[in-house]
Amino acid sequence: MRQQNNKQENITQQKKGRYILLLVVIGVLAAGGLLWYYAVRENDPAHTAVLRIGEEVVYLDELNFNILQNIDSMELDMEADTSDLEDQYKEDLLHMVMDYRVEAMVAQQQGITLTEEEQSTIRQDAVAFMGTVDGSALRKLGITQECIMRIYTNRYLAHALEEEATSDLEVEPQNFCTLYVMFFPKIQMDEQGDYIRQEDGETPVMLSEELIAQRKKDAEDARAALLDGKDAEEVARQYGVEAYSSEQSNLAGSFEESINGYAESLHEGECSPVLELSSCFLIVDMLEEDDAEKAEEILNYYRSDQEKEIIGEKRKAWYQETGVSEEPDLVGNTWKKISLYDFTQYGEE
């Protein structure tokens, strides 16, 4: 009986030993699994923090996408030392990401939301972008459709905020005209069309009174030819003043003072009287009175400049409103180690 009890105790001890060993093995495997998980997670761009924007964190996948999307427009020469240029591009990219993130925060605080159509467009654009880059590159950089959609959503919100900030901007319509301005100098000119000056380097050398009188007559004869319908460039060649005369296009009222009044009052095919200035006689010939398409193009540039100025001022207030510093708050050394040159191998297909 005692022998049987001893045998039973031995079996129990063996079972306990195997159970403890199993627990140890499971513990080792679990620890190894956790180490592997955290090692993989640490190297995952979607979990690698690079930049803090207030309470928000920007991860490497978002910055990788912004670099990839803009790399083709960067003037990086693989064979030249453009380290300063690369540093400037990296700085610009950081501020671009910070700007649309801060503006997206403010937009959400103001209750700005995206329409279903905009959300659908974001999804379509994300899919379209992924189709332009090799899948292995996207996986390596941690760029997923969800990552792109998140970035596009923030950009849309930022754009909506900027549109609201500039909605009151009005640019007065103006005429864009093209003139031919014909000069008859009263000053000696060199072959490059520059004034010949006296020994003091400042005072121009005037023509003789006789030559000035001839220039005035030439100007009057040229004007008569223009009124007869002759081509302005042909008339300028005929009187030897083509080197000093030219076609000029701009918004009416944006020329030099002596021309502005005629730019605003002349109709197509009309020309001004012979105007006498201290340095020349000149004629303004209206070639095209109102180029509406060109006027709109220039006014759009002007409007864009005005919008940038307004947004620049508003942006300072938005940073203050969110309590975010305008200086990048980097996390670790990840951003410093990134080289934009590594992204030139991807590009868009």
Plain-language structure description:
By secondary structure, this protein is of the alpha+beta class. The chain has three domains: 1-42; 49-169 and 303-345, Triger factor/SurA peptide-binding fold (Orthogonal Bundle); 176-289, Chitinase A, domain 3, CATH 3.10.50.40. Helix content is 55%, strand content 11%. It contains eleven helices and seven strands. A four-stranded antiparallel β-sheet has the order 4-3-6-5, sandwiched between helices. Strands 2-1-7 form a three-stranded antiparallel β-sheet. Strand 5 and strand 6 (280-288) form a beta hairpin. Helix 3 crosses helix 6 (145-165) and helix 3 (83-109) crosses helix 10 (292-322).
Features:
349 residues, alpha+beta, Triger factor/SurA peptide-binding fold, 4-stranded antiparallel beta sheet, elongated
Question: Care to give the gist of this entry?
Answer:
With 349 residues, the chain is an alpha+beta fold.
Helical proportion, percent range: 55-70%
CATH architecture of the largest domain: Orthogonal Bundle
Number of helices: 11
In whole angstroms, the N-to-C terminal distance is 84 Å
**CA gyration radius, whole angstroms:** 36 Å
Biggest sheet: strand arrangement? 4-3-6-5
Structural class call reads alpha+beta
Q: Care to count the β-strands?
A: 7
Order of helices and strands: HEEHHHHHEHHEHEEHEH
Percent of residues in beta strands? Answer: 5-15%
**Low-pLDDT regions:** 27-42
